[in-house]
Amino acid sequence: MSTGGVEKGSGGGGSVKTPADFLKSIRGRPVVVKLNSGVDYRGILACLDGYMNIAMEQTEEYVNGQLKNKYGDAFIRGNNVLYISTSKRTVAESG
Amino acid sequence: MATEEESTVKEPLDLIRLSLDERIYVKLRSDRELRGKLHGTEKKKIKGKKKRTQRRRNLNLSAPGAFRPPLSLLESRRRTQAYDQHLNMILGDVEEILTTVEIDDETYEEIVRTTRRTVPFLFVRGDGVILVSPPLRTA
After folding, report:
1. CA of B29 vs chain A CAs: smallest distance (Å)
2. Chain A neighbours among B 55-114 (CB < 8 Å)?
Protein backbone atom coordinates (compact mmCIF):
# COMPACT_ATOMS: atom_id res chain seq x y z
CA MET A 1 0.00 0.00 0.00
CA SER A 2 1.52 3.34 -0.98
CA THR A 3 2.13 5.87 1.74
CA GLY A 4 1.96 9.61 1.89
CA GLY A 5 -0.99 11.96 1.72
CA VAL A 6 -4.63 11.28 2.23
CA GLU A 7 -5.36 8.63 -0.34
CA LYS A 8 -8.10 8.86 -2.85
CA GLY A 9 -9.60 5.63 -4.04
CA SER A 10 -6.94 3.46 -2.44
CA GLY A 11 -7.32 0.15 -0.67
CA GLY A 12 -9.81 -2.48 -1.69
CA GLY A 13 -12.35 -0.33 -3.53
CA GLY A 14 -11.62 1.20 -6.88
CA SER A 15 -14.16 4.03 -6.61
CA VAL A 16 -13.11 7.66 -6.30
CA LYS A 17 -13.61 9.00 -2.79
CA THR A 18 -13.31 12.46 -1.38
CA PRO A 19 -10.94 12.93 1.55
CA ALA A 20 -13.95 13.25 3.84
CA ASP A 21 -15.21 9.85 2.72
CA PHE A 22 -11.80 8.38 3.32
CA LEU A 23 -11.72 9.74 6.84
CA LYS A 24 -15.11 8.24 7.56
CA SER A 25 -14.15 4.87 6.19
CA ILE A 26 -10.95 4.30 8.12
CA ARG A 27 -12.36 4.47 11.63
CA GLY A 28 -11.54 1.35 13.60
CA ARG A 29 -8.74 0.39 11.28
CA PRO A 30 -5.06 0.18 12.07
CA VAL A 31 -3.37 3.30 10.78
CA VAL A 32 -0.03 4.99 10.50
CA VAL A 33 0.03 8.65 11.41
CA LYS A 34 3.10 10.62 10.48
CA LEU A 35 3.70 13.96 12.08
CA ASN A 36 5.47 17.00 10.69
CA SER A 37 8.31 16.29 13.07
CA GLY A 38 8.86 12.91 11.44
CA VAL A 39 7.59 10.84 14.35
CA ASP A 40 5.43 7.88 13.45
CA TYR A 41 2.44 6.62 15.39
CA ARG A 42 0.85 3.27 14.69
CA GLY A 43 -2.40 2.24 16.26
CA ILE A 44 -6.09 1.70 15.78
CA LEU A 45 -7.97 4.81 14.81
CA ALA A 46 -10.77 5.55 17.25
CA CYS A 47 -12.00 8.76 15.67
CA LEU A 48 -10.92 11.92 14.00
CA ASP A 49 -12.36 15.27 13.00
CA GLY A 50 -12.06 17.84 10.27
CA TYR A 51 -9.00 19.43 11.83
CA MET A 52 -7.25 16.06 11.61
CA ASN A 53 -7.20 15.78 15.39
CA ILE A 54 -6.81 12.05 15.93
CA ALA A 55 -7.79 9.73 18.73
CA MET A 56 -6.12 6.32 18.63
CA GLU A 57 -5.87 3.21 20.72
CA GLN A 58 -2.97 0.81 21.24
CA THR A 59 -0.60 3.43 19.93
CA GLU A 60 3.08 2.88 19.36
CA GLU A 61 5.49 5.70 18.77
CA TYR A 62 8.34 5.21 16.35
CA VAL A 63 11.20 7.65 16.09
CA ASN A 64 13.66 6.98 13.28
CA GLY A 65 12.06 3.60 12.83
CA GLN A 66 12.65 2.65 16.45
CA LEU A 67 9.86 1.95 18.89
CA LYS A 68 10.06 4.53 21.59
CA ASN A 69 6.79 4.52 23.48
CA LYS A 70 3.47 2.82 23.80
CA TYR A 71 0.24 4.54 24.70
CA GLY A 72 -3.07 2.98 25.59
CA ASP A 73 -4.98 5.94 24.25
CA ALA A 74 -3.52 8.85 22.37
CA PHE A 75 -4.92 12.10 21.15
CA ILE A 76 -2.89 13.87 18.50
CA ARG A 77 -3.41 17.52 17.66
CA GLY A 78 -4.30 17.91 14.02
CA ASN A 79 -1.86 20.63 13.07
CA ASN A 80 1.04 18.26 13.67
CA VAL A 81 -0.27 15.59 11.34
CA LEU A 82 1.45 15.17 8.00
CA TYR A 83 -0.59 12.20 6.84
CA ILE A 84 -2.87 9.39 7.95
CA SER A 85 -2.47 6.11 6.19
CA THR A 86 -4.04 2.70 6.66
CA SER A 87 -1.76 -0.22 7.28
CA LYS A 88 -1.80 -3.93 7.72
CA ARG A 89 -0.55 -4.46 11.22
CA THR A 90 1.86 -7.30 11.64
CA VAL A 91 1.82 -7.03 15.43
CA ALA A 92 -1.02 -8.96 17.00
CA GLU A 93 -3.44 -6.66 18.74
CA SER A 94 -4.21 -7.52 22.31
CA GLY A 95 -7.79 -6.78 23.35
CA MET B 1 -26.23 6.07 8.99
CA ALA B 2 -27.21 8.11 12.04
CA THR B 3 -26.27 5.29 14.36
CA GLU B 4 -22.74 5.19 13.05
CA GLU B 5 -21.46 7.61 15.64
CA GLU B 6 -21.83 7.04 19.36
CA SER B 7 -23.80 9.68 21.14
CA THR B 8 -21.14 10.26 23.78
CA VAL B 9 -17.96 10.26 21.73
CA LYS B 10 -18.18 11.92 18.37
CA GLU B 11 -14.83 13.49 17.95
CA PRO B 12 -11.38 13.21 19.47
CA LEU B 13 -12.00 16.16 21.79
CA ASP B 14 -14.74 14.16 23.47
CA LEU B 15 -12.20 11.55 24.45
CA ILE B 16 -10.23 14.17 26.30
CA ARG B 17 -13.40 15.07 28.17
CA LEU B 18 -13.34 11.56 29.59
CA SER B 19 -9.99 12.35 31.17
CA LEU B 20 -11.16 15.39 33.11
CA ASP B 21 -9.84 15.45 36.66
CA GLU B 22 -7.50 12.64 35.75
CA ARG B 23 -3.78 12.70 35.47
CA ILE B 24 -2.64 12.95 31.88
CA TYR B 25 0.54 12.90 29.89
CA VAL B 26 1.10 15.68 27.39
CA LYS B 27 3.80 15.76 24.77
CA LEU B 28 4.78 19.24 23.67
CA ARG B 29 7.00 20.68 21.02
CA SER B 30 10.64 21.40 21.77
CA ASP B 31 11.07 17.98 23.39
CA ARG B 32 8.98 18.70 26.42
CA GLU B 33 6.65 16.44 28.32
CA LEU B 34 4.16 17.20 31.04
CA ARG B 35 2.45 15.00 33.56
CA GLY B 36 -0.31 16.64 35.49
CA LYS B 37 -3.93 16.64 36.46
CA LEU B 38 -6.41 18.02 33.96
CA HIS B 39 -8.77 20.38 35.73
CA GLY B 40 -12.50 19.99 35.37
CA THR B 41 -15.84 19.51 37.08
CA GLU B 42 -15.55 22.35 39.49
CA LYS B 43 -18.76 23.10 41.24
CA LYS B 44 -19.32 26.72 42.03
CA LYS B 45 -21.17 27.38 45.22
CA ILE B 46 -23.21 30.54 45.48
CA LYS B 47 -23.78 32.24 48.77
CA GLY B 48 -27.39 32.66 49.76
CA LYS B 49 -28.52 29.54 47.98
CA LYS B 50 -31.89 29.70 49.66
CA LYS B 51 -32.70 32.85 47.84
CA ARG B 52 -32.16 31.27 44.46
CA THR B 53 -35.84 30.68 43.86
CA GLN B 54 -36.58 34.26 44.65
CA ARG B 55 -33.95 35.40 42.26
CA ARG B 56 -35.42 33.24 39.56
CA ARG B 57 -38.91 34.52 40.12
CA ASN B 58 -37.76 38.06 39.66
CA LEU B 59 -35.95 37.15 36.53
CA ASN B 60 -38.07 37.97 33.58
CA LEU B 61 -35.55 37.96 30.82
CA SER B 62 -38.11 38.44 28.12
CA ALA B 63 -39.41 41.71 29.54
CA PRO B 64 -37.94 44.77 27.86
CA GLY B 65 -35.13 46.33 29.82
CA ALA B 66 -35.10 43.39 32.24
CA PHE B 67 -32.20 42.87 34.56
CA ARG B 68 -29.87 40.31 33.06
CA PRO B 69 -27.55 38.79 35.61
CA PRO B 70 -24.23 37.37 34.58
CA LEU B 71 -24.38 33.75 33.54
CA SER B 72 -22.53 32.65 36.64
CA LEU B 73 -25.62 33.25 38.71
CA LEU B 74 -27.79 31.10 36.51
CA GLU B 75 -25.34 28.28 36.07
CA SER B 76 -24.53 27.62 39.66
CA ARG B 77 -23.30 24.13 39.18
CA ARG B 78 -21.61 24.31 35.86
CA ARG B 79 -19.08 21.81 34.84
CA THR B 80 -15.96 23.74 33.90
CA GLN B 81 -13.68 22.23 31.38
CA ALA B 82 -10.14 23.41 31.61
CA TYR B 83 -9.41 22.71 27.98
CA ASP B 84 -10.77 23.94 24.71
CA GLN B 85 -10.72 23.13 21.02
CA HIS B 86 -7.27 24.68 20.68
CA LEU B 87 -6.07 22.32 23.39
CA ASN B 88 -5.28 25.16 25.75
CA MET B 89 -5.30 23.34 29.07
CA ILE B 90 -5.09 23.99 32.76
CA LEU B 91 -3.08 21.41 34.63
CA GLY B 92 -2.43 21.04 38.33
CA ASP B 93 0.52 19.43 40.12
CA VAL B 94 2.55 19.31 36.97
CA GLU B 95 5.91 17.79 36.35
CA GLU B 96 7.69 19.09 33.27
CA ILE B 97 10.43 17.05 31.64
CA LEU B 98 12.77 18.78 29.26
CA THR B 99 14.95 16.55 27.09
CA THR B 100 18.13 17.73 25.44
CA VAL B 101 20.57 15.79 23.31
CA GLU B 102 24.10 16.99 23.15
CA ILE B 103 26.54 15.65 20.63
CA ASP B 104 30.15 15.65 21.66
CA ASP B 105 32.24 17.18 18.89
CA GLU B 106 35.13 14.79 19.40
CA THR B 107 33.55 11.50 20.19
CA TYR B 108 30.21 12.11 18.46
CA GLU B 109 28.62 10.71 21.53
CA GLU B 110 24.99 11.55 22.17
CA ILE B 111 24.37 12.76 25.66
CA VAL B 112 20.73 12.73 26.55
CA ARG B 113 19.84 14.98 29.45
CA THR B 114 16.50 15.41 31.11
CA THR B 115 15.63 18.39 33.25
CA ARG B 116 12.64 18.19 35.52
CA ARG B 117 10.67 20.79 37.38
CA THR B 118 7.36 20.81 39.19
CA VAL B 119 4.73 23.50 38.84
CA PRO B 120 1.59 23.54 41.00
CA PHE B 121 -0.69 25.22 38.48
CA LEU B 122 -0.06 25.62 34.79
CA PHE B 123 -1.79 27.07 31.77
CA VAL B 124 -0.69 25.34 28.60
CA ARG B 125 -1.15 27.08 25.26
CA GLY B 126 -2.63 24.62 22.81
CA ASP B 127 -0.27 25.73 20.07
CA GLY B 128 2.56 23.65 21.45
CA VAL B 129 0.66 20.47 22.19
CA ILE B 130 1.47 17.43 20.12
CA LEU B 131 -0.08 14.52 21.96
CA VAL B 132 -2.31 13.93 24.96
CA SER B 133 -2.70 10.59 26.65
CA PRO B 134 -3.64 9.06 29.98
CA PRO B 135 -0.41 8.18 31.76
CA LEU B 136 1.22 4.88 31.01
CA ARG B 137 0.39 2.22 33.50
CA THR B 138 3.02 -0.44 34.11
CA ALA B 139 1.51 -3.87 33.47
Report:
1. 9
2. 87
Q: Give the model confidence (pLDDT) of A66-94 as tens digits.
A: 777 777 889 999 999 999 999 876 554 44
Measured CA to CA, the distance from residue A35 to residue B129 in angstroms comes to 12
Contact B96, B34 (CB under 8 A): yes
Nearest in space to A87 (alpha carbons), one of A23, A43, A27, A56:
A43
If you ran DSSP here, which 8-state letter would residue A57 be given? E
Specify whether the CB–CB gap between A56 and A73 falls below 8 A: yes
Q: What is the ipTM of this complex?
A: 0.73
d(C-alpha A31, C-alpha A46), whole Å = 10
**Which residues on B lie below 8 Å from A80 (Cβ)?**
130
pLDDT in tens, B88-129: 999 999 999 998 888 888 877 777 888 889 989 999 999 999
β-strand B110-124 against B89-103: which pairing, if any?
antiparallel
Q: Would you say the C-alpha torsion B67, B72, B76, B79 has a positive or negative sign?
A: positive
B-chain CB neighbours of A77 within 8 Å are 87, 126, 129-132
